[in-house]
TrEMBL record:
This protein's name: UPF0173 metal-dependent hydrolase GC101_03695
A GO molecular function held by the record: hydrolase activity
Function: Counteracts the endogenous Pycsar antiviral defense system. Phosphodiesterase that enables metal-dependent hydrolysis of host cyclic nucleotide Pycsar defense signals such as cCMP and cUMP.
Keywords per UniProt: Hydrolase
Amino acid sequence: MKIIYHGHSCVQIEVGGKSLIIDPFISGNAAAVTKVEDIKTDAVLLTHAHMDHILDAAPIAKSNNVPIVAIVELASYLEGKGAQTIGMNIGGTVVLGFAKATMIHAFHTSSITLEDGQSIYGGTPAGFIIEAEGRTILHAGDTGLFGDLKMFGELYEIDLAILPIGGHFTMGPEHALIAAKWLGARHVLPVHYNTFPPIRQDAGAFVQALEEAGIRGSALGYGETLEL
């Protein structure tokens, strides 16, 4: 299994010649090293409706002729934009053939910004637990620290936790370290940091803190990969 970090919260998981991509925000990220048109995938997963998580979802889904998996309200909106969608809700599981994805809750907000600048309800924010090839990956989405992360650690053997560390809009490094411990994660990939000035963080220091707690951490550069 290969994990590719495309920047911000965008992660692509490759499994046996198939892949899924989560929260594609590439064309709007000046630091991105990947082009949207070069993304090849079999599914697009969205944690919530904010633009820095859905910007390139429809173009990628359309060019690959694959579905977008999202909370029902966001799926309905994107279906109206001409994309194939699979609408689901918290606690549900979608089987993609090469992997299955269970939607879990996150503590954040979620809205769709329209062309006139107005915002409409985008459904409940979420995360995903992805199971494939005997591995379990948790993508927490945009979230603050909350106690049910302990529950997910009890329910699943988490090989990789993908956690936001930026602060300001999500939990910061200190709370992400607590989350990693509660989850019992074997390995942690920090995301959602350094894209914008309010979320500047030292990912290297976070990885060091993880290692001091006995947890492996990897701070990937844009376009870099991790093998599980």
